[in-house]
Design a protein that fits this description.
This is Amidase. It is an enzyme of class 3 (hydrolase). Pfam families: Amidase. The chain is of the alpha/beta class and 478 residues long. The chain is 37% helix and 15% strand. It has 3 domains: 5-233, Amidase signature (AS) domain (Amidase signature (AS) enzymes, Alpha-Beta Complex), CATH 3.90.1300; 253-296 and 370-469, Amidase signature (AS) domain (Amidase signature (AS) enzymes), CATH 3.90.1300; 297-369, no CATH class. It has 14 helices and 15 strands. The model is unreliable at 238-242 (pLDDT under 50).
C-alpha cells in the first residue's frame, strides 16, 4: 500500500483501496513497530473504524467527503480531540477527554480525514525531546537510543516508521522542523495566523485566546503531502477570526534567487550538515539558480536568537507550575542587575513586565520589517534545519542545565533552536525537507524560509530540493 498521503488519497478516490483497508494497514504497522518506538501513545480504534466505514459507504454512493476523504492519520497529543484522550504529556491531564476538536483537527476531519491516534510530545510541548511522565520517551526509528526531537517528535517518528501517512504538528521554536530534520521527513511551519491554533495545549484546555507565537502545521513524507494538508488547514478559524490567503507560486528553477546561510553564532553547525548544504548550493547553481552567499539577515542572527528566546520564555511562563513561577520571580527580584546566571535570566524572562514585553515586541517588529530587504534580493533563504543530527536521549537535569556536543565542543542545550528562530520570530513560513545523511547514518534536513503568506513559494523551492536530494528514505527495518 502506498504510504504517502497524496498517493493514498488518489487510490482511495479511484477505488483501488478502501478507507477501512488503509486504516487496518496502519493499525497493523502500529501494532508491529510502536512497542519499541513509542511514537503513537493513544488510539481510537472503534471510532476510526466507524469513520472509515462511513467514508467507504459514502464512496459507494458516489459521494466525496473532501480532499482527505477516508485518509487515516494521526495528530500530535497537544491538539484536543473529541472523545480521544489529550494530555500534552502532563500527568494532570492524563484523563482529559475533550468535548470538541481543536480547530485544526476539526478542519482535517471536515475534509474527510480519519483520525485514529495521537503521537507523543514532551510536557506541554516544552522540550527538544519527546518524553513525559504519562507515556515515557519516544525513540528515533533511525536509532532508538536517540531522540526523534521535540516537541513534535512522536509525529516525526511515526511518519518515518510508516505508522501514519500524515501528521498534524505544532511549532513555536522548531517543534515541527527539528523533528522532521532528526527523522528524515518533511515539515512546514505556516505563516503565523494562517492555520487556526485554538484547541492547542498549551494554553489550558478550553482556552479561547491564541498564543502570540507559534503555529500548527503539517508533517509528512513528501512536500506534495504538505501541500495537500496545507490546503485544508489554512483559512479563518471556527470562531470567525479571518486567516490569510496563500497566493500560488510558479517557480522556474533557472530564475530562482536563493540566499544560503550556513553558520550561526549561537551554535556551530555540524560540519557534515554544512558540507551537504554547500553541495546542494552548487547543484542548484548548476541548474541556473542564482545562489546568494553574501546576502545578510535583517539583523545579526545572534540578536534575532536572543530576542526570540526572551519572547518565547515569556510566552511559556503560564505553563510553569505556580510554585516554580513564584521561585523564579523571587530569584529575579533578588538578583543584582549584572547577574547573568541562567536561573536569573530565566526568572527575568518569565516575569517580564508588559513594558519590557513591548520593548522586545518593538525589536521583533523592526527585525520583521528588515526581511523586506532580504526578500527584495532573494526568493527564499536556505539554512540548516537544525545545527546537529539526532542526539542520545537526555533525561537528567533540565533544558537549562543540559549540554550538547557539536564538532567536539560543548554548547547550551537550548541553543539548538538557533536556526528555527529567524522564521519563528517574524512569523515567516519555513519548510524542512530531507537533505542527506551523516557518516553515522543519521538523516538531516534543509530549511527553506520564504516571505509571509508565501508558504507556497517555500514549498515550491522545497520541491526543487527534494528532486535533487531524493527526498524521504525509510529507516532500515521499517
Amino acid at each position: 500500500m502506498r504510504t504517502t498521503a497524496t498517493g493514498l488519497v488518489a487510490d482511495l478516490a479511484a477505488g483501488r483501496v478502501s478507507s477501512s483497508a488503509a486504516l487496518e494497514y496502519f493499525l497493523s504497522r502500529v501494532k508491529e513497530h510502536n512497542p519499541a518506538l513509542n511514537a503513537v501513545v493513544a488510539l481510537d480504534v472503534a471510532g476510526a473504524r466507524a469513520q472509515a466505514e462511513a467514508a467507504d459507504a459514502a464512496a459507494a454512493r458516489g459521494l466525496r467527503l473532501g480532499p482527505l476523504h477516508g485518509l487515516p492519520m494521526t495528530v500530535k497529543d497537544t491538539f484536543e480531540t473529541a472523545g480521544l484522550v489529550t494530555t500534552a504529556g502532563a500527568p494532570e491531564l492524563a484523563g482529559h477527554l475533550p468535548e470538541r476538536d481543536a480547530d485544526a483537527v476539526a478542519r482535517l476531519r471536515a475534509a474527510g480525514a480519519v483520525v485514529f491516534g495521537k503521537t507523543n510530545t514532551p510536557l506541554y510541548a516544552g522540550d527538544f525531546q519527546s518524553c513525559n511522565d504519562v507515556y515515557g520517551a519516544t525513540g528515533n526509528p533511525w536509532d532508538l537510543a536517540r531522540t526523534p526531537g521535540g516537541s513534535s517528535g512522536g509525529s516525526a517518528a511515526a511518519l518515518a516508521a510508516g505508522l501514519t501517512p500524515l501528521e498534524l504538528g505544532s511549532d513555536v521554536a522548531g517543534s515541527i522542523r527539528s523533528p522532521a530534520h532528526f527523522c528524515g521527513v518533511c515539515g512546514h511551519l505556516p505563516t503565523r495566523g494562517a492555520v487556526p491554533a485554538r484547541g492547542h495545549i498549551p494554553g489550558a484546555p478550553g482556552t479561547l485566546a491564541v498564543p502570540p507565537l507559534g503555529s500548527p502545521g503539517p508533517m509528512a513524507r513528501c512536500v506534495a503531502d504538505l501541500e495537500l494538508a496545507l490546503d485544508v488547514l489554512v483559512g479563518p478559524d471556527l470562531a470567525g477570526v479571518p486567516g490569510g490567503t496563500l497566493p500560488a507560486a510558479a517557480v522556474r528553477t533557472g530564475e530562482l534567487r536563493l540566499a544560503v546561510w550556513a553558520e550561526h553564532p549561537a551554535l556551530r553547525t555540524d560540519p557534515e550538515i554544512r558540507a551537504a548544504l554547500d553541495e546542494l548550493a552548487g547543484e542548484l547553481a548548476g541548474l541556473g539558480v542564482r545562489v546568494l552567499r553574501k546576502l545578510r539577515p535583517p539583523r545579526p542572527l545572534y540578536e534575532i536568537h536572543q530576542t526570540y528566546a526572551r519572547l518565547l520564555l515569556a510566552v511559556l511562563a503560564p505553563s510553569f507550575p505556580e510554585p516554580v513561577f513564584r521561585r523564579l520571580r523571587r530569584i529575579a527580584r533578588r538578583a543584582s542587575p549584572d547577574d547573568r546566571r541562567p536561573a536569573v535570566e530565566l526568572g527575568r524572562a518569565v516575569t517580564l513586565s508588559y513594558r519590557e514585553w513591548q520593548d522586545l515586541d518593538e525589536r521583533r517588529a523592526r527585525i520583521t520589517a528588515g526581511w523586506a530587504a532580504v526578500f527584495a534580493e532573494a526568493d527564499a533563504v536556505l539554512t540548516p534545519a537544525a545545527p546537529l543530527t539526532a542526539f542520545a536521549h537526555q533525561t537528567a537535569g533540565t533544558p537549562l542545565t543540559r549540554e550538547l556536543e557539536v564538532n567536539g565542543r560543548k554548547a547550551p542545550y537550548l541553543a539548538q533552536m538557533a536556526w528555527a528562530t529567524p522564521a519563528s520570530l517574524s512569523g515567516l513560513p519555513a519548510t524542512t525537507v530531507p537533505l542527506g545523511r551523516s557518516a553515522a547514518g543519521l538523516p538531516f534536513g534543509v530549511q527553506v524560509i520564504a516571505p509571509r503568506w508565501h508558504d507556497r513559494k517555500a514549498l515550491a523551492v522545497a520541491r526543487v530540493v527534494e528532486r535533487l536530494t531524493g527526498g524521504f528514505e525509510a529507516p532500515p527495518g521499517y
